[in-house]
Amino acid sequence: MNDRISTGMMYSQSVSLMLSKQSRINHLEQQIATGSKIVSAKDDPVGAGTAVGLDRVAAGLEQLGKNANNVQNRLGLQENALAQANELMTRAVELSIQANTPVPGETDLKAIASELKSIQDSLLSLANSKDGSGRYLFGGSSDADAPFLKSGGTVAYGGDQTQRQVEVAPGQLVNDALPGSEIFMRIRTGDGTVDGSAAAGNTGSGLLTSISRDGSDAWEGGALTIRFTEAGEGAYEVLDATGAVVANGTHAAGEDIVVGGIRLRIEGEPAAGDSFGVEASSTRDIFGTLDKLVAALESDPQTAAERTSMQNVLQSSMRDITRASENMIDARAKGGAQLAAIDDAASAREATSVTIKSTLSTLRDLDYADAIGQYKLENAALQAAQTIFSQMQAMSLFNTIR
């Protein structure tokens, strides 16, 4: 068998070699120009697929960062609104104390009532606060319309009870702003567990100034009535919800009455037949509490008994306002905890992002020293191939014969 090397085959091999070197040089030029060693997926199919997956993760982290910025803005606005509301509550307590002294006259009481109405309007405005995108902060998930509406002198909540959760880092959720019903509407009266009030028909000067549990577990939540039986003597009896007498004693002004796990302080001298009720705390909205307070200030008491009745309402309102203020402080604390969680999430996102960027750099970033070295080597090989091809073209049998 004879193998013959033809001129055509030599030409074909030389051209193929030069084209291969030229293609390699073009590829290296693209890598150097872009700074990426993966110009197309065929350069490293596994690495390219991994890089695409990491790109998706990085894009997800970026979206989580936007989520975090949005909820952080809303929680910051909630904090500002609640701080202002708490200042208004503090002022309402100051006005209640001022009204509960013997000094203010009818004109002063009406001025205090007028300022309390202004405080109520300001609270309503804060309760309808918006975020930067025009959504209402305290409407729950129904945040397109104002959650609090005043109709017929009564404020009603039109939002829902949903507190949205927002993902701010992989697997980490934070709570959005609280629903307004939890802040302004469903506020426990009294000390949050037990409440008390003076009977409307009392004729003495007895003033219920405080009520709370005595630290024991004796009270089981049932209603009690402290009824005074002797004028000036301080004798009283305690009745349960069925009207049965369960205890009795003698009371001196300023001393606590401790009965059934409840501690009450009654100032002044209750008249015979006067009574004070004890019951489990109910819920009342802050707007209703202020309405009750304003109505008492505008009642224009004429007699000592009416004055005492008004003062008992003021005392009850002060307890409720204080409880509302504590409720707002609790809400601010919850918001602060979420803001801290957002900061922690930002650190987690940053750490993950750094890891992803480092991995992507390993997969994609070009080693310029190696690429430039290969580029020079391929250029030299192309020039050598071109030289050989030129020399081969000059070769001829006629040249040999000559």
Automatic annotation (TrEMBL):
Flagellin N-terminal domain boundaries: 5-141
Main location: other
Species whose genome carries this gene: Stenotrophomonas tumulicola
Protein's UniProt keywords contain Coiled coil: yes
PANTHER family assigned: FLAGELLAR HOOK-ASSOCIATED PROTEIN 3 (PTHR42792:SF1), FLAGELLIN (PTHR42792)
Gene3D superfamilies linked: f41 fragment of flagellin, N-terminal domain
Subcellular location: Bacterial flagellum; Secreted
Annotated Pfam families: Flagellin_C, Flagellin_N
Name of the coding gene: flgL
Coiled-coil segments: 61-88
Molecular function as annotated in GO: structural molecule activity
BP-aspect Gene Ontology terms: bacterial-type flagellum-dependent cell motility
Domain Flagellin C-terminal residues, every copy: 321-397
Gene Ontology CC: bacterial-type flagellum hook; extracellular region
UniProt name for this protein: Flagellar hook-associated protein FlgL
